[in-house]
Amino acid sequence: MTEHVTIWDRSIRLFHWGLAASVAGCLLTGFLGFPGAFDVHLWLGTLTLGLLAFRLVWGLVGSRHGRFRSFLYGPAAIAAHLAGIRDGRPARYPGHPPAGAAMVFVLLAAVLTMAATGLVALGGIEKLGPLATRIDFDTGRAAAEIHAFLAWGLLVLVAGHVAGVLVESRLTAENLARTMIDGRKRVAPDGGPEWAMDDDAPRVRLPGAALLGGFAIAAAFATLTLYRAPAAGLAPDSIAGTPYAEACGECHFALPPSLLPAETWRTMMATLDDHFGENASLMPSTENRITTFLVNGAADHWDVKAAHLFDAPAPDAPLSVTATRRWRHLHHDIPKARFKDPKIGAETNCGACHADASRGLFSLRDIHIPETDR
Amino acid sequence: MITSTRNALLLSALAAVCLGAAPATAEPATLDAYARQAQAEDPSFGGFSAQRGETLFRARFASGKAETPACVTCHGDDPRMAGRTRAGKAIEPMALSVSPNRYGDIAKTEKWFRRNCDSVLGRACTAREKGDFIAFMTTQ
């Protein structure tokens, strides 16, 4: 009759599956940009951060085998464990075995880096979240690149972790995934006192389920409030209702001034009598007022995403936003015919799909391509 | 059977009301201003012609910008229907009967004649051409 003992406390188990689900969800919503994915991504990312914070505390004051100190193995121990796997007879450990333990640390570090770079990118690029006022666009973009690159790394790590669990489970004839569900492991024949969840060290007890629920609610709250819209001053005011929107919104959606540099606006305003193949001239007094408005609100004065994207003009259409390589690239998977939909009309009608276009934001949270019923 | 007869009666009554009514709107004051201007530009000016206005509205010109050969390029063939700018935005119909607010604000009307005549004809329109155009639109 083999003896089983509880090794993983309930909080650790909830944490493990909570993290697995939230990381899987983050990867899914990050890689597949379906409508609304970004909202879910932010919520799950915040939840992940909460779970990590809990794990860091639990690694210090939790139960025996969850404490970081209990599974800190040196290279020699890891090599010995791997050699055991190679020979088909790995030693059995009550907690994480050395190779698995190393993977736990790497995974935790990777997920933490993902969450951190995500927050930096969100602050710098979208001007949302707790770092919005502290991070500039370029830093945000660098963080986003690390975030995107590391996402692939995390995918590889997760695959390695799962493969490791499968191999180890097979070789030790113990379903390790199940032990993370019921917390119980089969005691080794020569099992000593370390085959137990508790030891002499004091341990904090927390209602794990309540904690997890609390994190989920807090993350949802952060997503709804903290990430809703940039604070005033971080992004331009809406141009809706301004004399500019009236004067330049007659033939097309009036583009927010922050999309183009001041120099481009000056040139455009000086050539209104031949404006994209049309005469769009204004009375001189109106023209001066509009020029001032455009120059003062130009991309040069703002750090929002859209003020950084379209600064490389297309050689054959230097005054155009939609002709830039960036714009074409961002919209390349929208079929040309889609823009002809009566509810959209043209590529220049940014506001049809970007609800926040008049503020020059173009947040990933505010994109909805309208659908005409036929 | 009975209901369809009644509907037919109702319809013809409605049609009679519509057809019998006075023209949808009085000729706008803008037209008077253009008439005075046309008289000054050309002493032999003998009044506006809706027919010449229609010709201007429908003609294609090679003298303007390549992208805009005619007024109908944007305003569409039927003045009572909405047009569409080259950038895809809808333009309210030009016919006064459908868009009674048109040609009432001379500054606005002038702004668009200035732009559109230059785009299409490659020159400014004369006061007579402007009046003809509006005269045509008041008949639509």
Description of the molecule:
The complex is a heterodimer of chains A (374) and B (140). Chain A has 374 residues and is an all-alpha fold. Chain A is 51% helix and 2% strand. Chain A is built from 13 helices and 2 strands; from the N terminus they run E-H-H-H-H-H-H-E-H-H-H-H-H-H-H. Chain A has a two-stranded antiparallel sheet. In chain A, helix 2 (37-61) crosses helix 4 (98-126). Chain A starts with a strand and ends in a 21-residue tail after the last helix. By secondary structure, chain B is mainly α. The termini of chain B are far apart. The relative contact order of chain B is 0.20. The chains are: A mainly alpha (374), B mainly alpha (140). The interface between A and B is medium-sized, with 21 and 17 residues.
Low-confidence stretches of chain B: 1-24
Order of helices and strands of chain B: HHHHEEHH
CATH level-3 fold name of the largest domain in chain A: Fumarate Reductase Cytochrome B subunit
User: Which residues of chain A form runs of ≥5 with pLDDT under 50?
Assistant: none
| DSSP summary: helix tally of chain B | 6
Radius of gyration of chain A: 28 Å
- In the CATH hierarchy, what is the superfamily of the largest domain in chain A? Transmembrane di-heme cytochromes, Chain C
Radius of gyration of chain B: 18 Å
Percent strand of chain B: under 5%
Q: What characterizes the major β-sheet of chain A?
A: 2 strands, antiparallel
By CATH reckoning, the class of the largest domain in chain A would read Mainly Alpha
Inertia-based shape of chain A: elongated
Query: What would you say the CATH architecture of the largest domain in chain A is?
Result: Up-down Bundle
